[in-house]
Amino acid sequence: MSAPHRQELLDFQMNDSNFQKMIRMVGSIHRKLKIALTSKEEAADAFRALDEGLPSDQKKKLLKQERKAMTEREGNPAAMDIYQIQLDRAPTMKSIELAMLSRSHSIPSTRRGSSTWLARGLHIQQSQIQLRLEALSFGHKATEAQRLTLARKRDRLGTDVRSFVSDAPSFLGQIQVQSPDEWDSHSDDWIDYSGSDEDDAEVAFGNIEPHHEEESHLPFPSFMGRTACMELGIEWLAEEELELRKGQANDSLQHLRMALAEKASDPYHPGMGKINTIELTVKKHAALYRACRQAMISLEADEETLSRYQVLEKEHLKPGSGPWMCKRDTELNDWMSEFYRGHWLRAKALKDRWEEEVELAPSRRRMDE
Prior knowledge:
The protein is 66% helix and 0% strand. By secondary structure, it is mostly helical. Helix 3 runs antiparallel to helix 10, helix 4 (114-138) packs across helix 10 and helix 10 packs across helix 13.
């Protein structure tokens, strides 16, 4: 192909593309206008539902914050942070692990890697609880595809458990680790079986695997207890697990607050799919929190820690219940009011955005015509 031929072909393709855009642009804008009109009504209804429950003095305060953010956003992008939840967060498990890793250069080489090993075990325990709850949710109605998904997750979980246990002697020494059949599982005390039968999980799994990776015991220092750890000279490892457990408990409480607030602030009646997702999230993080608190007791945490991380009862897992849960991050701010503030600002921004789109779409159509 010669250079003139190539140029002619490219010109033809580009001209044809521009011509197609020109003749189809009106229809595209018309479709966008229809979407904008529908979205405008939906956004207005959602904002109205939030706005009706807001006192007039708080409404004026939020409008003032919004105007200030819109004025300063070009020169100061941080002004848009008002659309984020602004609470002093409790330390997460990741931040605690990072702090431990940053101090690794000052500890003996034999202890290095312990925080990563413990964090890996806590993530495996989280996967165990997740898998158990998924099997319970499927129950007797599990399809073949769902059973296959559970089988694959159980297989991957078994590999992770064996890898974690094989690394345990590096930190715990040569101790006897119980097999799944020998372990008197106490994880059932963590999980809420309301609305399902405990045997539903076994029905969902079927006869695909005789072992129970989601119930396998993980050799944490908390399983042996504080006294045994002192006798073995691994009290330092127990302290590390205690700190990571606090971070994991903070993460679980954060997820619980988010799920319960979403359940309480939704102005519409969500479908069954959304309800089941929220309930599964609540059960998962409630079980994780109970596991963390049980480990704290085994590690002989002080009274101040146990009073901060109180017993999580079933009645606390309802919107508006469990006031101690809403004060974990800070005592100066109310979590629910902050969550409501963020939702109100975002809902108003979405409403304004669709109103602007409805105004601009006809102007674009007239320009193209």
